[in-house]
Amino acid sequence: MGDVAVLFRIYAEEGKEESVRKEIADTLKPKGSQLEEVAFGIKTIKALFVHDDAHGSSEIEEKLRKLPGVKEVEIVEESLV
Question: What are the structural domains of the chain?
Fold first, then answer.
């Protein structure tokens, strides 16, 4: 088994994008994260996680969804490393 890289796009409540990004960094320790402006002032958070292939991405997705201020979470890309 190898490692899997998963890129998530996280939609936060308006105006809370930076605080949600900080919470993700502090609690879930992604390999990296950044704010991305989508359109018309709408911002999303992209966060990259690398985990063992034996563990599913759904565990990380569930933890992201439970964070305060998170409205929606989607997997943008998933690949073996």
Answer: 3-80 (3.30.70.60)
C-alpha Rg value of the chain to the nearest Å:
12
Record the pTM. 0.91
CB atoms within 10 A of CB 4: 18
Map residue 23 onto helix, strand or coil: helix
Q: What is each CA distance from 27 to 11, 37, 63, 77, 79, in whole angstroms?
A: 17, 23, 10, 22, 23
Residues of the chain with pLDDT under 50: none
Burial of 20 (0-12, 13-18, 19+ CB in 10 A): buried
CA dist 41 and 63 (Å) reads 26
